[in-house]
Design the sequence.
């Protein structure tokens, strides 16, 4: 005898505490078991790509900030590298170093948000605030350098808007020294907590094959066990000068590619970023950061694809130039957008509570998904 | 069976470790401040509300063109030959009456792109960040120093002047 | 007892009864809720390196009063598709359930609403009303999140009642009484007489009992935590999943009722734990009143010790809440059925065997 059950459609979002912005997930439930997830996006669409077509090249930079607003430095870096390729200009060594330092600080800041909000999704609110406390210090570093805390417009085509603040090196060293014990404390409080492990290990397992087929990148791909990091595999800026590892998921608490692995890869990546920053600060060359900024940015006709490893994955810009002062077309390959597709695949057969755990481990930023 | 007791054991241990962490934080001083009473010092590169020093502005419109969101609006009138508008602090001669210079801070994204191209460095960012308003229109700041009558007058003057010039031109054209 | 005293004073059992019934509400629950909400926010704040409320009064001590005033002023929103009758009854029922439990809680040897012989049984039975209230709230809200929260809550409270009862049973078996008054009286004034440390009988059994009493104490604390829906068992109102579960649709005073019920419940379960294991209202080090020969001081001291112990366990509940993530529904059930119930059951057996030795 079979019991006739009815499926229930539950709308999660766009106003929901843990959809990380204005995402609407249409869940089809059988009891509390998920049978289908359909993400509905577009609530935060701001026509970034269309805007670019009427902006001059430098004017696009503030707009790139607003895509992945938790990793604005990375967004700028990707765009600027693309335009520099079009212009065929070489930037001074010091500029590259500072860019790397900023991008890595930004990676830590972004991962702190990812980890903290993930903890809050799972129900532990305290780590969230500890993470924000540490992120605050990174934002302060950005603030003394360029005056803005979130949306910097700092990395410019051919250079930087400001040189480092005289105190920057000292403060960064202080930050690194104080951040390391905090990271250990975070691990004690959250990472190795039995309840946290139970909630995340073996939940939303993403096999490597599927991850590649879906075009998933960033910490998600690495958590599934592939050592793929553009900083090493398609190196840009001066990343090849630094010595760092690429952490991958090992299935320490469950299966390779589960939510805990995705979370833990981010924790490990923060440590690697600290290593890079330490090395870069030690070997920071002298120079003028504004000398290579072109007076008029008017790239020759052509197109370019530039990609960088953003905290959320591969961020790509495809820029077509028609020889005028504004790009003919800018297409963005947004990592969050691509990673979000995997939701349905990961959530099927899990409980409602797991959707939150999985969505948190995918770590999307709606500004980037919708652009 | 071992896994069973192991589970209980790790659960209790990790809970106690976590509780130790939070208990320690109960007695560490807080990192937050009481905002309106206490304010953090702002770094000197702080990027907040713009200010335009009109004494130095030559009305060249470069800042407006650099702005990605078009929130600066500038209108200028040419000065008449006899008028002396003075000089800017770095020695540039002013030649335009700025009859309108508004910045809409509701639109401004504080990107600082307008600051760099200014030839006289008269538009810059200050550290004022508490300027919220109940009405959006109040966020449109007018920096032009001329009074409305003066503005009208300058526009009139220039119109008259150019008309005269036209006439004169027409006359000379005719006489030729 | 207070009731007899008032009865003599006024000569009317009705007035005496009403006053005795209302006394815990005004003398204790409301002030306690005001205090506990503030404590919760302060504890949360300081654990998270924040300050918590600071604006209203010195270090924010009047914050909850301000909040209550705000809640009273709020519009009472009832959505069109709510089941109005159930929607209105539910908060009252939930509050009544937790309030009724206070009747049998022994605050001190003279302040005890009703000294019933089945005290502990009564409390466990009457707090079951809370489930009905929550289910009603979830159903009447006509909101999918509320419904899910209510279902979860019902399942959770029912399955966690079993380990609670098993542990209570072991104490009842040991002492042969269900009256909370007798239980507290028997753990006379020094802490080595507490049941947590084997009870007042000073024999070999006492020492054999200690580890099992500790286990029993842990189990009852964990399962009562689950019964009042506190983290890590707060899945019925898990704000990151179900917005806020069964009280999503409530606003204003009705929401405040749920809130009050939650805090009253927190104290009620702590009080049970205290009465069973930690000597109830008895002081751990003897009484100042005995020392100074002031008789009326003793009940006050007892009241102080009881609330102190109760609030301490409420504090631990808060401490846990701001430390731990929350479990998932199935894990929650597993924790009860696979861990707590078997352990509590064996514990009961062993305590039984030891007590007949
Ligand atoms: S700061 Fe940016 S947005 Fe604001 S006025 Fe200047 S250029 Fe425009
Ligand atoms: S760029 Fe400077 S001088 Fe030119 S209009 Fe703007 S503020 Fe005035």
Sequence:
């Amino acid at each position: 005898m079979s019991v006739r059950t009815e499926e229930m459609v539950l709308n999660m979002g766009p106003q929901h505490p843990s959809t990380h912005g204005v995402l609407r997930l249409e869940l089809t439930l059988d009891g509390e078991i998920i049978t289908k997830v359909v993400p509905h996006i577009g609530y935060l669409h701001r026509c970034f790509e269309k805007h670019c077509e009427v902006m001059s090249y430098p004017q696009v930079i503030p707009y790139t900030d607003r895509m992945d607003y938790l990793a604005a430095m990375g967004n700028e870096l990707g765009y600027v590298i693309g335009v520099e390729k079009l212009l065929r200009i070489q930037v001074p060594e010091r500029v590259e170093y500072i860019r790397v330092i900023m991008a890595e600080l930004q990676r830590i800041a972004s991962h702190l948000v990812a980890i903290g909000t993930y903890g809050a999704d799972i129900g532990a609110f305290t780590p969230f605030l500890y993470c924000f406390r540490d992120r605050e210090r990174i934002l302060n570093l950005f603030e003394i350098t360029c005056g803005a805390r979130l949306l910097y417009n700092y990395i410019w085509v051919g250079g930087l808007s400001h040189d480092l603040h005289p105190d920057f090196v000292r403060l960064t060293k202080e930050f690194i020294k104080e951040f390391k014990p905090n990271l250990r404390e975070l691990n004690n409080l959250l990472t190795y907590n039995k309840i946290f492990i139970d909630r995340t290990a073996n939940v939303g397992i993403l096999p490597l094959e599927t991850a590649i087929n879906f075009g998933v990148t960033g910490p998600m791909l690495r958590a599934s066990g592939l050592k793929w990091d553009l900083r090493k595999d398609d190196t840009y800026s001066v990343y090849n000068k630094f010595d760092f590892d690429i952490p991958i998921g090992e299935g320490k608490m469950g299966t390779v590619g589960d939510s805990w692995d995705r979370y833990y890869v981010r924790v490990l990546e923060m440590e690697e970023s600290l290593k890079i920053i330490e090395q870069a600060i030690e070997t920071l060359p002298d120079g003028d950061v504004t000398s290579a900024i072109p007076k008029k940015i008017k790239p020759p006709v052509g197109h370019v694809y530039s990609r960088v490893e953003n905290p959320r994955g591969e961020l790509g810009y495809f820029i077509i130039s028609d020889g005028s002062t504004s790009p003919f077309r800018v297409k963005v390959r947004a990592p969050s957008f691509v990673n979000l597709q995997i939701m349905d695949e990961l959530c099927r057969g899990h409980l409602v509570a797991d959707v939150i755990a999985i969505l948190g481990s995918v770590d999307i930023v709606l500004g980037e998904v919708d652009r | 069976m071992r896994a069973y007791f192991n589970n209980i054991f790790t659960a209790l241990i990790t809970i106690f470790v976590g509780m130790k962490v939070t208990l320690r934080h109960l007695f560490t001083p807080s990192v937050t401040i009481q905002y309106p009473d206490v304010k953090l010092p702002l770094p000197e590169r702080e990027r907040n509300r713009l200010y335009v020093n009109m004494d130095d502005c030559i009305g060249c419109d470069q800042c407006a063109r650099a702005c990605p969101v078009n929130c600066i609006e500038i209108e200028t009138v040419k000065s008449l030959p006899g008028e002396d508008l003075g000089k800017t602090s770095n020695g540039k001669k002013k030649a335009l009456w700025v009859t309108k210079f508004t910045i809409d801070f509701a639109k401004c994204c504080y990107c600082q792109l307008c600051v760099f191209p200014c030839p006289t460095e008269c538009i810059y960012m200050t550290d004022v960040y508490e300027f919220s308003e109940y009405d959006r229109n109040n966020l449109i700041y007018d920096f032009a120093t001329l009074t409305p009558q003066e503005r009208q007058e300058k526009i009139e003057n220039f119109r008259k002047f150019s008309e005269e010039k036209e006439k004169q031109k027409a006359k000379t054209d005719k006489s030729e | 007892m207070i009731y007899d005293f008032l009865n003599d004073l006024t000569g009317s059992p009705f007035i005496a009864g009403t006053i005795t019934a209302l006394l815990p509400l005004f003398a204790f629950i409301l002030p306690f809720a005001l205090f506990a909400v503030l404590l919760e926010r302060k504890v949360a704040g300081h654990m998270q390196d924040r300050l918590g409320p600071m604006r209203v009064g010195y270090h924010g001590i009047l914050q909850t009063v301000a909040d209550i005033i705000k809640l009273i002023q709020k519009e009472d929103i009832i959505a069109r598709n709510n089941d109005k009758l159930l929607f209105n009854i539910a908060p009252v029922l939930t509050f009544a359930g937790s309030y009724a439990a206070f009747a049998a809680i022994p605050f001190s040897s003279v302040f005890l609403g009703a000294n019933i012989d089945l005290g502990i049984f009564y409390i466990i039975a009457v707090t079951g009303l809370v489930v009905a209230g929550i289910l009603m709230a979830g159903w009447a809200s006509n909101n999918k999140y509320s419904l899910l929260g209510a279902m979860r809550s019902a399942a959770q409270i029912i399955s966690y009642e079993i380990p609670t009862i098993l542990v209570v049973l072991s104490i009842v078996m040991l002492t042969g009484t269900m009256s909370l008054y007798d239980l507290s009286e028997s753990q006379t004034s020094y802490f080595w007489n507490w049941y947590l440390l084997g009870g007042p009988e000073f024999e070999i059994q006492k020492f054999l009992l200690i580890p099992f009493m500790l286990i029993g104490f842990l189990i009852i604390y964990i399962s009562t935590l689950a019964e009042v829906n506190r983290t890590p068992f707060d899945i019925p109102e898990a704000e990151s999943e179900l917005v806020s579960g069964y009280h999503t649709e409530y606003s204003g005073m009705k929401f405040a009722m749920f809130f009050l019920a939650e805090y009253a419940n927190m104290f009620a379960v702590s009080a049970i734990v205290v009465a069973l294991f930690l000597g109830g209202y008895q002081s751990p080090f003897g009484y100042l009143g005995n020392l100074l020969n002031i008789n009326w001081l003793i009940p006050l001291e007892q009241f102080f010790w009881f609330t102190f112990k109760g609030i301490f366990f409420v504090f631990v509940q808060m401490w846990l809440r701001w430390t731990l993530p929350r479990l998932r529904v199935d894990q929650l059930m597993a924790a009860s059925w696979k861990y707590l119930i078997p352990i509590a059951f064996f514990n009961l057996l062993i305590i039984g065997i030891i007590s007949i030795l």
